[in-house]
Design a protein that fits this description.
By secondary structure, the chain is of the alpha/beta class. 27% of the residues lie in helices and 20% in strands.
């Protein structure tokens, strides 16, 4: 299989970006706004809760700056500066939540606390083996190794809290061979840091020796860092840590991409593509005003002409995508079914096994957007399944 190196020089340190005047904080499925337009909010205040009552699921959304709710959109909440109150009037004082203690919590009560603090707990399950992916996820995206080097105490705090919350049977940390990194109580497994072997599904194979390990949760070092961050501060999650063109930065969630780039002095060439994520699996954005999501680990700038332009070109049946596919499926065939909206035909051809590494698109001599077609099919199937589930609930 063709592989790409993820070895990248680290930044000197993780740099903090000043808080912007305005943030655009993304909302996900299942989030219900808990604020109103024109409401003054303080940093850490809950903006949106989740509809599910259980402890496992997407985390609550919190304000990342002091400000006023300027707008509530289906996909985001926008917070801007508090307007001047005018002569003779006192400016409203935003209320910030205090430190929330968790020392007396355990099991599901602690998981629920994590969720309320903004942690996505949907990937955690009690008594399972936990595999921490300590490999850099993609070429040029080096956050995992940066956190292992600079944030050891926070990561250890994250493991300690998970031990109380879900009581894992074992904790494995997969790191690059010869790196020397380790974490409290974790069994270190060394691996070849070549993409796509750095992706979660393949890291699980490395850690457990099984392609379909039972009772195993895989999380990234960035996921563990977020847990450790709320554990040590006792405050809601209000920041994202990511890499940008050789820099490692910590920014308030929802900071416009353009302000992050400006703070770092990074220029976007005319005609370049800016993506959230790495160069292989990142998703291009249409505007630099989009806010940084809390789970974003990299911003990648792809200069014009670096890669061939993909398009709806016909498949030439060369089989190159099959040769590089780590899931051993037929990406080209799946992309053709998706291209012609035959989404249901992709199920028996194991579309669920796709790890979305992007190697199929990378090697395609016809320059087809193979990964994008597969993602489209997955999205359509998810929509269809959700609709069917809703119909069944209504019939009961």
């Amino acid at each position: 299989m063709k592989k790409l190196s993820t070895a990248t020089p680290l930044s000197d340190s993780i740099r903090s970006i000043p808080a912007p005047q305005r943030v655009r904080i993304a909302l996900g499925r299942g989030h219900t706004p808990a604020v109103k337009r024109k409401q003054v909010v303080g940093k850490g205040q809950v903006l949106a809760e989740t509809t599910s009552s259980g402890p496992f699921g997407v985390g609550f959304v919190h304000a990342t700056i002091d400000g006023i709710v300027e707008d509530i959109l289906p996909e985001a909440i926008i917070i801007g500066p508090i307007p001047s109150p005018g002569e003779g009037k006192e400016a409203p004082v935003p209320e910030r939540p205090g430190r929330a203690e968790h020392k007396n919590l355990a099991d599901e009560a602690l998981v629920r606390w994590l969720r309320e603090m903004g942690i996505d707990t949907s990937r955690f399950h009690p008594s399972r083996t936990v595999v921490v992916n300590g490999l850099n996820p993609e070429p040029g995206a080096f956050l995992s190794e940066q956190l292992l080097r600079d944030e050891r105490a926070t990561l250890d705090a994250g493991i300690n809290l998970l031990e109380r919350a879900v009581r894992p049977g074992n904790v494995h940390l997969v790191v690059a061979r010869g790196s020397g990194y380790g974490l409290h109580g974790a069994h270190v497994v060394e691996a070849d840091p070549q993409y796509p072997s750095t992706l979660d599904a393949l890291v699980a194979v490395t850690a457990t020796g099984s392609e379909n390990p039972e009772a195993t949760d895989v999380i990234s070092v960035a996921d563990l860092y977020r847990v450790g961050r709320v554990a040590t501060t006792g405050l809601p999650l209000t920041e994202a840590v990511l890499t940008v063109e050789g820099h490692a930065v910590r920014v308030p969630t929802g900071t416009p991409i353009v302000e992050v780039l400006d703070a770092l002095g990074v220029q976007v060439p005319a005609g370049a593509t800016v993506a959230l994520g790495g160069p292989m699996t990142g998703e291009a954005i249409s505007s630099l005003d989009i806010g940084v999501p809390e789970n974003c680990t990299a911003i990648t700038i792809v200069p014009p002409g670096r890669y061939p332009q993909v398009g709806p070109n016909p498949c030439i049946n060369c089989g190159e995508c099959v040769l590089v596919c780590p899931a051993r499926i037929q990406p080209g065939m799946l992309s053709r079914y998706a291209e012609f909206a035959l989404f249901e035909e992709t199920r028996p051809r194991h579309i669920a096994a796709c790890v979305e590494c992007g190697m199929c698109t990378y090697v395609c001599p016809a320059n087809r957007p193979v990964l994008q077609y597969i993602r489209l099919a997955k999205h359509k199937l998810e929509e269809q399944d959700a609709f069917v589930a809703t119909c069944r609930l209504q019939d009961e």
